[in-house]
User: What shape does this take?
Amino acid sequence: MEFLWIILVGLIAGWLASKLVRGGGLGLVGNIVVGVIGALLGGFLAGKLGFAVGTGFLGSILTATVGAVVLLVLLQLLNIRR
Assistant: This one.
């Protein structure tokens, strides 16, 4: 069941990030991957910077979205496209 929550958070975060970053839409599977990797990146950055976005489902989505936005911006800077 936890796996489904990870996928759901990844999907929502990837979709939100793709809406916030122009040209960041990568389709359903791409958004899930970006969201899940973004969750890891967002958690890492939050820990290193010493801040917490929140707890629970909403906090997870916010953290994952921030990480996904950072990931999409980095990918665009490196000119890595679909």
